Structure formats: C-alpha cells, structure tokens
Amino acid sequence: MKQQRMLIPTLRDVPGDAEAASHRLMLRAGLIRQLSSGIYSYLPLGLKALQHIQTIVREEMDAAGAQEMLMPALHPSELWKASGRWDVYGPELMRLEDRNGREFALGATHEEVITSIVKDEIHSYKKLPVTLYQIQTKYRDERRPRFGLLRGREFLMKDAYSFDSSAEGLDESYTSMYNAYVNIFTRCGLQFRAVEADSGAIGGTDTHEFMALAEVGEDTIVHCPSCQYAANLEKALGRMPEQGAQSQASATSEPAKIHTPAISSIKQLIQFLQISPQQIIKSVALDVDGTPVIVLLRGDYELNEIKLKQTLGAADVSMLSENEILKLGSIAGFIGPVGLPNVKILADISTRGIIDAVVGANELDYHLTHVSLERDLPHTTYLDLHNVAEGELCSHCGHELLFAKGIEVGHVFKLGTKYSKSLGATFSDEHGNSEPIIMGCYGIGVSRVLAAVIEQNYDEQGIIWPETIAPFSIHLLTVQPQNEIQMKLSQDLYTALQQAGYSVLWDDREERPGVKFNDADLLGFPVRVTVGKKAGDRIIECKERRSGLSYEFTVQQLLAHCQSFFPIRRSI
Questions:
Q1: Cα angle for residues 540, 543, 545 (degrees, 5° grid)
Q2: Cβ distance 478 to 486 under 8 Å?
Q3: Segment 268-296, tens digit of pLDDT
Q4: DSSP bridge pairs for 552
Q5: CATH 3.30.930.10 for the 14-236+403-454 domain, yes or no
Q6: Which of 69, 96, 318, 522 is the most buried (most CB within 10 A)?
Q7: CA 32 – CA 446 distance, rounded (Å)
Q8: Residue pLDDT, tens place only, 442-496
Q9: Whole-number Å distance between alpha carbons of 246 and 252
Q10: Which of 142, 164, 162, 163 is nearest to 153 (CA)?
Q11: In this predicted structure, what is the pLDDT of residue 569?
Q12: E strands of 142-233, at which residues?
C-alpha cells in the first residue's frame, strides 16, 4: 500500500481526556476516531491490526475444535426474562422497543441466544460435545466510558460456548479453551496472567480471567512469585501474618468510653488517639437482601462485597443510610459491636486476636477502648470478608503476596446448567433419560486486546508493534520521491518484499524527511527500510523499531535479514 493514498490522519496533539497511553497513541497514529462517548470508528490501520488479532483468535479456536457462527445483536426480551437476567443484569444492558412496543436488548453477551439455538438443534448425547463461537460487536451502557477501547460502550468480542453431556466433558472443554487462550495471548505478544476470578453477572462456578499486565489496568491482581498462585482482588485469599504481642494489662482492662468529638473516620481516629490502624475495629453497616448486617474489619482493611455475597448467598448488598443506622440504635461514624442489640454481626478474620481494640460506642462523639472481641463478644463468627492487603501471605505456600495492575482481556467460565435448565436445553442420554446440557462460556475482548497490546508496547516516539499483529510488517520510506534513482530502487524493493510475502506500507509522500521519520516511529511497524542518498549504490538502511538497531544492506541482504526477523510472513 502506498501511503500517499492511504487514510492515516496522524496528530501532534490529542484531546485532554485521553488518559491512557493506548488511547493517546491510537488517536495520534490515526488508528481510531471517536464518534460518541465510548464509541469509536476503526480507520484503516486500526482495522488491519484488529483483523490480525481476529485471525489469531480464529486459528486457535479452530485448532481447539470450536466452530464459528454468527448470532444477532438484537435480542428479544423474552429470552433474557426466561433466564432471569432481564431484571438482574443492571443498567449496562441497552434496552429498546420496536414500533409495536416489543422489548429488545442489544447483545451484551449471548448465553441466552446460543442456548436457545442448541435447545432446538441438539437433542442427543451423540451430538455432544460441541463448542460454538462468534466474533461480533457487543453493547454495554457503561456508566463511565474511559481509556478509549479499554472501556467502551460498543466493542468487538469473541464469545464461545461449549456444550457437554457430563461434568468430565466440561472439564475437558474448559481446559481446551484455557489452553487456546494461552496460545492466543502469547501470539498477540501480551504479557499476561491467568487468575482465579468471580463470575459476576454471567454466573457459573470455576472461572479464570486472563489479565494483561499494565499500570492503567482497573483490576488488581494478587499473585505469589513462589507457587504461581494468582487471583483478582475480588477472589484472592491470603493468610494473615502472626499478630504481635499485646499488653496483658490491656487484655484485662474493661472497655472504657472516651470522648472523641467530631472524630468519625479511621484517619481522624488514628491522629486523635495516636494509635495504629491495627488497633481499630471498624463497623461497616450494610443492608444484605433487606436484613441489616454489621461487618467488623481491622482499621486498615477493606470489605470485599463479593466474598460477603458468596458467604451469605446474598444477591444485593448496599450501605445502610444514616436513618437506618439510627433505627439500629447507633449513629453513623460511631458504630460499634458492643451493646448493639438485635443485629447480625460478622467479624472478618483480620479482627481475630486483637485484645486492645478501639471501636465505636454507638453514641455521638464517643468511642470505646480496651475492647476484646473474644471476651466482649464471645459468640462472634469469624469469616474471610476482606480484600487481601499487602503484607499478607499466600494461602498455598506462605510466601508474601505481590500486587499488580491488569487489564482483563479474556474470561473463561464453567456455567454448568444455569442457562440450560432455565431455557429448557436438554439431551437424551444413552439410557434415554432427559438431562440438562452442561455449558461453558469463554470470552475475549478483541478490541480490548488491541489497546492492551499498545499499553505494553510503546515509547516516547510512538507504538512498538509485535510482529504478529502490526498493521504492516515493513515501512518503506523514500527520502526524496522526486529523485528518480531513489524511486526506482524503492519500487524494486516494494515489489520484491511483497513478492516475498511481507506486508509493506510505502511512504511515497512529498514530505520532509523529518516528518516521515517521526511518523514512522509513531506508527511503529517492526522494520523501517529507508531509501536515501546511497540509492545509487543500491544500499538501503534497515532499522528495527523495538531494538533500535540499524543496518546498511543491499536488496538481497535485506531479504535475508527479513527472513530471519519475521517468523511468519504475512501479506495482508
């Protein structure tokens, strides 16, 4: 392709709301343009990179035995109501009505649709297992679209669904998809981790997220460098360090009420009493499916709502209002577990062993000191309800856990019979008995992968594409297009490289050399070939974008170098 005729609108400056590096670079390099909040058009270079990612996805999915299909983006509400998700999915589901008042949703995910198809088409165990997938645009009404393609309202996704006749079959399908994902993200050039995760609105049991490591990531990954345990923060389990020795005098002291005027936060309490957060037990007042619950946590820990929901089997958890706290006999900012009647109290394991704690006194401007839960609330139930914090130990091997930021690029679930039962997708087993089909679900954010790759591969000059997904493999620059010798050599190179199977963008524009070099660095293709003042000797410069290494080659030497540099030739 000749750059003179290609739509590559590079920019010097980008909008101030482009916070993420990938967002800035994709705008500057002319890969995308915003149409509305969270909605983007892919310009030619962006689409080429996206297509290369799709090719990798298709190759690995096909190799794993999955079959590609394509489902509608417009879903009748009846399907979602049958599964129970129409009312519980939340405001992210984009809903609309047709001219007859019939309700529809724009597909955020396709469990209901694929289950209804399989329900009608597969009735015998002899047709199982089967795995079906599609690559299609999805829609979610994000409350706060941000970071360009990392969190949009319209995005490209690969979603796959496996159907099995047994739990053992689901295990095999899950492992097959897990391995395919490892191959996909490795080939795309991503640094990633597969972490234990929560299934969220999709449902299901066993699940892993594939997280691309990046500081801009909105997810926190907890991992062990010793045994390779990894989980997202919502799911991570740690082991509390041993508590330090505490004063025996404090252990035998009775709770004492102290005046703490206008001191209602942990930070204020630490400063006022000159104590550490480890000496504070905070009380979090919650509405759990309509029932008030107080959760006790050490002052430096945060509640993990996912763990709480799973522990109690709850659907909804929200904070109690100030008026609701008053009805319990307490006051916001000064809630404490001692003397609070008729309220369910749960204690996080972080509070176990604290024998000289400060808690709220359930009275305005007062706290209690010298509180010991074991003594003052002897029937307290201790549960793991907190977010794992730095300093905690791995629950598997005891090594100190590490924390990193990540971008979720893929997710695999074992759905079981959640959707097949609600939608009536059954099969006849070898004995003629009717059984619900056992399902798995496997998603990849294809457009998010594109942004995540750039988040991990750039420098001050621009993008540094991995060879496998770069829009073009080679950027050919003619320094002086008006020079016949340079143009003749450039044409020879352009032809030879394409015939050898490489995708080439030829910068034949009438621009200053500095503009061309800057644009080449910004676009970041793996190899830049420059035809300049040594064209008469048929000598060209070859520069590798990632390493910065530069060579002078003849045409034949360049072809030999490209053969060793690119493991796979790609001309699209």
A1: 155
A2: yes
A3: 999 999 999 999 999 999 999 999 999 99
A4: 541
A5: yes
A6: 522
A7: 15
A8: 999 999 999 999 999 999 999 999 999 999 999 999 999 999 999 999 999 999 9
A9: 11
A10: 142
A11: 52
A12: 154-164, 192-196, 207-213, 219-223, 230-232
Phi, psi of 546 (to 5 degrees): -75, -50
Grouping H, G, I as helix, E, B as strand and the rest as coil, residue 208 is strand
CA atoms within 13 A on the CB side of 270: 13
Phi, psi of 545 (to 5 degrees): -65, -45
> Which burial class, exposed, middle or buried, applies to 567 when counting CB atoms under 10 A from its CB (0-12, 13-18, 19+)?
exposed
Torsion of Cα atoms, 119 then 121 then 126 then 132, to 10°: -80
Question: Containing H/E element for 292?
Answer: strand 291-298
Tally of CA atoms within 13 A in the half-sphere of 140 that contains its CB: 20
Picking from 131, 139, 150, the residue whose alpha carbon sits closest to that of residue 60 is 131
Query: Which of 19, 14, 16 is CA-nearest to residue 32?
Result: 14
Residue 106 corresponds to which amino acid?
L
d(CA 260, CA 41): 57
Structural contact between residues 170 and 414, judged by C-beta atoms closer than 8 angstroms: yes
Buried b (16+ CB within 10 A) or exposed e, 81-92: ebbebbeebeee
Q: Quick check: 387 and 233 in contact, CB under 8 A?
A: yes
Nearest residue to 3 (alpha-carbon basis) of 471, 451, 463, 502: 471
Contact 165, 129 (CB under 8 A): yes
Q: Where are the alpha helices (DSSP H) in 133-204?
A: 167-187
Tokens of 484: 């016949």
In CATH terms, are 248-383 and 474-565 the same topology?
no
Q: Which of 338, 343, 240 lies closest to 288, judged by CA?
A: 343
Cα Rg for the chain, rounded, in angstroms?
Answer: 30
Q: What are the tens digits of pLDDT across the range 319-369?
A: 999 999 999 999 999 999 998 888 999 999 999 989 899 999 999 999 999
Scan for tokens 């080439």, then name that residue: 504
CB of 66 closer than 8 Å to CB of 132: yes
In angstroms, the CA 242 to CA 327 distance is: 38
Contacts of 98 (CB under 8 A, 6+ apart): 104
Closest of 444, 416, 411 to residue 115, by C-alpha: 416
Question: What digits encode the pLDDT tens for the residues 419-437?
Answer: 999 999 999 999 999 999 9
At residue 159, the 3 state secondary structure works out as strand
Task: Give the domain ranges of the chain.
Answer: 14-236+403-454, 248-383, 474-565
Owner of token pair 């996909």: 184
Report the distance separating Cα 178 and Cα 411, nearest Å. 9
Under 8 Å between Cβ of 474 and 504? yes
Structure tokens at 82: 């049958």
CATH of 248-383, one of 3.40.50.2300, 3.90.960.10, 1.10.287.610, 1.20.1440.20: 3.90.960.10
Predicted model pTM = 0.85
Per CATH, is 474-565 categorized as 3.40.50.800? yes
CA distances from 352 to 277, 279, 300, 359, 532 (A): 14, 11, 14, 14, 73
